[in-house]
Amino acid sequence: MHKPVATLAAMMMALGLGLGLGLGLGPAFADATIPTRDIAGARDNPLLKRYDGSFIVSYERLAFTDFKVPLSKLEKTPEGQRDRMNNQVYKPKQELEIEGARTRIAYLLPAGRSPLEVLRNYQDEVKAAGGEILFSCKSEECGGALDRSSDGGGGDMSLMMYFVYAGQLKDADFSNGKCALASGIDDQRFFAAKIPQSGGDAYVTVHTFQVNDTLYCKAFNERTVALVHVVEPKPREQKMVLVKADEMARTIGATGRVALYGIFFDTNKADLKPESNPTLAEIAGLLGASPQLSVLIVGHTDNQGAFDYNLDLSRRRAEAVVKALTASFRVDPKRLRAAGVGMMAPAASNDAEDGRAKNRRVEVVKLN
Asked: Residue 254: which residues within 8 A CB-CB, separation 6 or more?
């Protein structure tokens, strides 16, 4: 267990002063300690083994999610575009959007290992597995704030913030994991790569840097951290049962609406995927069996992304459903209206992926 201390950090937090780590008040304050074992429940991803002598200090795995891989330097977007921490937004001109099983691991490396040495070893592992380096950068070549990790507001967004913000980390405040990923940094290095697999390409990003802290994380100073993301090709589990037309009718009769999870879009797009057709056919069947029924098709999103963007995306997705019903299923367009509400009406908490999955839906709402 970490040793409680009454430090300047604790006094500052007690007075409500920020430490630049976006941390909430915890039950105790503690200095970071050099680990001798991995945190509980953590393990290497089989596609990319660890650097010898390193330990896992932060770990998260999601069975299925979306992920963006930067393929070029992060560049400043037009003035006024701000992220959730009021930072100037930076984005790459080239990026790849993928979906699959995502593992995020932060390793603390042994003393005396530089970010470059660690990065080169990971690149060797990727190449040995038949992989290909897609993009690499160092220092200012990566774009954004050079001295920030996942935390900080009112300045420039960092490379790590492209992947995760301090508030999204599952690590406890003042833990080794939070120290590794929410402190100041020096000498950052980065690469993105793909590794061929039998079910499709897996994608890897490796971000190495040295910790630079003056308070409770100073035990990690001049130690290298490697933040590794691995996204493996994996089909999404089809757990949402197809809702038949008669069940839609019963639910609408009882509640005035029905939520549907069988309508699919690619991430950040409004183009219907072919696997949406069974649910679209059931909506058409519902309307065919109830000639007097008119409905509102409402698009919903989770809370990932900007409010206005999600509002527009949900509207365009609802319009795509209406267009498909009229063009391919011969539904009278006078009986349909499209609307998008973005993230404004969640069906579950957005704090975890299973809740966000429930919020990404289309609802059919009775109009008359």
From this structure: none
Q: What is the CB-side half-sphere exposure of residue 82 using CA atoms within 13 A?
A: 9
What secondary structure letter does DSSP report for 139? G
DSSP annotation string for 103-164:
EEEEEEPPTT--HHHHHHHHHHHHHHTT-EEEEEEEGGGG-SBSS-SS---SSB-BTGGGT-
**Tell me: the pLDDT tens digits for 171-194?**
999 899 999 999 999 999 999 999
Q: What is the arithmetic mean of pLDDT over 77-99?
A: 93
DSSP state of 242: P
Is this prediction's pTM over 0.85?
no
Cα dihedral across residues 258, 304, 133, 231: positive or negative: negative
Residue 8 has which token pair?
């300047």
181 near 169, Cβ under 8 Å? yes
Return the DSSP state at 86.
S
Three-state DSSP state, 12 = helix
Average pLDDT on 257-284 reads: 92
Three-class SS state of 178: helix
**Encoded amino acid at 204, one letter:** V
In the structure encoding, which two tokens stand for residue 278, read together?
Answer: 């069974």
Residue 9 has pLDDT above 60, yes or no: no
> What is the band of 13 on the pLDDT scale with cuts at 50, 70, 90?
very low
Strand residues in the chain grouped as ranges (E): 55-70, 74-76, 90-92, 95-108, 132-138, 184-197, 200-212, 224-232, 257-260, 295-300, 336-340, 361-366
> What is the rounded average pLDDT for all residues in the chain?
89
Provide φ and ψ at 238, rounded to 5°: -85, 80
CB 177 within 8 A of CB 169: yes
Instruction: Tell me: pLDDT of 23 over 80.
Output: no
Within 10 A of 184 (CB to CB), how many other CB atoms are there?
Answer: 21
The per-residue pLDDT for range 105-118, each reduced to its tens digit, is 999 999 999 999 99
Name all domains of the chain by residue range, CATH numbers in brackets: 8-232 (no CATH), 245-366 (3.30.1330.60)
- Cα 167 to chain centroid, rounded: 12
